[in-house]
Design goal:
Helix content: 55-70%
Radius of gyration: 17 Å
Structural class: mainly alpha
Number of domains: 2
CATH class of the largest domain: Mainly Alpha
Strand content: 5-15%
CATH topology of the largest domain: Multidrug-efflux Transporter Regulator, Chain: A, Domain 2
Shape: extended
CATH architecture of the largest domain: Orthogonal Bundle
Number of helices: 5
Order of helices and strands: EHHEEHHH
Distance between the termini: 36 Å
Strand order of the largest sheet: 1-3-2
Largest sheet: 3 strands, antiparallel
Length: about 120
């Protein structure tokens, strides 16, 4: 589901439990005010709020933000279209199965290359 085109240029998500809005902003290359706006527009994006209404995002939130970013900035969806695409389980499944096919094909090619190099 996560498009690889520009997201490969984004930093790797560290193995932490919670991320501040500043960290997520850097990880996803999106400004903090945009993240706060997306929270209003995408009901599935709900960071944990703690002391003083501070937001703490979890890993699944960061992945979701990267998906939203890809839909809006790279694929040209509107906010409504992106919301609908994320909410449609059939389309999400098709996108996921397409990604799985690409992964399987890449893996097969790498195994062939490994066999060739080991000769």
């Amino acid at each position: 589901m996560l498009e690889a085109s520009n997201n490969s240029e984004l930093p790797v998500i560290p193995s932490k439990r919670y991320f501040t809005i500043g960290e997520v902003s850097e990880l996803c290359d999106v400004k903090p005010h945009v993240l706060r706006y997306w929270e209003q527009e995408f009901p599935t994006l709900k960071p944990v709020k703690r002391r003083g209404n501070r937001r703490y995002y979890q890993r699944h939130d960061v992945v979701l933000i990267r998906q939203i970013r890809s839909l809006l900035y790279e694929q040209g969806y509107t906010i409504g279209g992106a919301r609908q695409k994320l909410a449609d389980p059939v389309e999400a499944e098709q996108s996921s199965s397409g990604t799985n096919q690409i992964i399987q094909q890449t893996r097969a090619e790498l195994e062939d290359l490994l066999q060739f190099l080991s000769r």
